[in-house]
Design a protein that fits this description.
This protein is an all-alpha fold. Helices cover 77% and strands 0% of the residues. It has a single domain, classed as Four Helix Bundle (Hemerythrin (Met), subunit A) (Up-down Bundle), CATH 1.20.120.
Length: 195
């Protein structure tokens, strides 16, 4: 069941990236901080290159069918999650387009970019939450060891370009930014204080 741990770890990594995106947008809006377009494009590139090309397809192609074999009643939620994978890709394209427009137009392009970023962050958080609360427990309860072996083999070759064992060179600056913005104990940023 290594893939179960991998999926949960990838969700945590995703949440760190989403938190960073959200934090950067907030700093631009509330503190008029200059945007670093290289970092923003790096975040979008990461989301596309890892989440949409590795993580989601493995869930759709390996995990969801195995669950459906044991739990036909889960088909509606599995279908919904599969549809959400496609919807997440569309939202990411929208985010990239609004980021490019913001880069070209300057401050006049910030509002649509902010809205697209907020929509994407909330969507992906809710999607991951639904998987962890409704689908992963079914997998844990019903899948056989041979099914887990097959799924584990598929997920084992996921190489996260930021958080993996061998982070890719082009993501070095993005990794540093994430580390400084994500609050302790996961990153080096200031601890979040509850109100």
């Amino acid at each position: 069941m290594k893939s179960l741990s991998i999926i949960k770890r990838e969700h945590r990594n995703l949440n760190a990236v989403l938190f960073t995106l959200e934090r950067l947008v907030l700093e631009i809006e509330e503190h008029n901080k200059a945007i670093d377009f290289v970092i923003m494009h790096g975040i979008v590139y990461y989301l596309d290159s890892f989440l949409d090309r590795f993580h989601h397809p493995k869930e759709t192609d390996y995990l969801f069918p195995a669950i459906e074999n044991h739990c036909p009643d889960a088909r509606p939620v599995l279908d919904l999650l599969g549809q959400q994978h496609a919807q997440g890709e569309r939202l990411l394209v929208k985010l990239l387009k609004t980021l490019s427009a913001y880069e070209f137009l300057g401050p006049a392009g910030f509002g649509p970019f902010r809205d697209a970023a907020t929509e994407y962050v909330e969507f992906e958080r809710q999607h991951a939450y639904k998987e962890e609360k409704e689908v992963l427990p079914l997998a844990e309860k019903h899948l056989t060891q041979s099914e887990w072996d097959h799924i584990d083999a598929a997920f084992a070759d996921n190489q996260d370009p930021i958080f993996g064992e061998r982070p890719q060179t082009e993501f070095r600056e993005l990794f540093k930014t994430l580390g400084c913005l994500i609050p302790a104990p996961y990153g080096l940023g200031p601890e979040l204080k509850s109100n």
